[in-house]
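chain below, 216 aa
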Amino acid sequence: MLSLLAGGWILVSVAGSGPVLAMHRVALSPVSENETTEFLSQVLSSGTIDAQWLSSMGFNPVGAYRVDQMPGVAGLVAWKKESERTYLCAYLLASGQVLVDIVTLFQTGMLTTGKSKDSQLLPYSPGNYMQSFTATTAVLYRRHQEGLQTLTRSKKLAALAIDGSFEADFAAVMSEQLEYIRSLALWPLRIPWWYFVRRSQRHDKTLAQLETGKRY
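prediction:
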């Protein structure tokens, strides 16, 4: 029994290591105007995001992309909030599902609020914060604003006001995440714990709860 458990642990560790090691190859490829229209139509028709709501919240289109070397992701549509480095990213999955991440960059670090429990799989480096909820995009955005308020009070962090390149910011985040994971001792052997325990422990909890350890 113990040998079966150990074998299963190693199997999950090996299977989970591949996508992590492939993170350095993940890249965005801008798509044509016709494909942009197609991607946008898929996102809006899914009901995940409402165009009128985006406009009312001050989000403007950034672009549509294919995401190379990210398994299960067929495309990405991104918007940026006026006057700050906050992005709303809609991921088109191969299954047809649409997942949303809202990301705000600080001078150092960032806050991400996501829809998928899988976003809690890997730990983030110090100064980077992650929260996730099974919720509508409007609720995710409200939770994101609450998270920003928490970080403003506790860490004196504020969203960057200067413009940046979404492609460059995306690449920098992926690179930093990979570097941090690989710096952790025996990180492949931690993957089963992260997958079976960490994801569920951290999902549907506010940043304030995660920071104080409530219901952790």
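DSSP finds seven helices and seven strands in the chain. The mean pLDDT is 90.
thats it, cya
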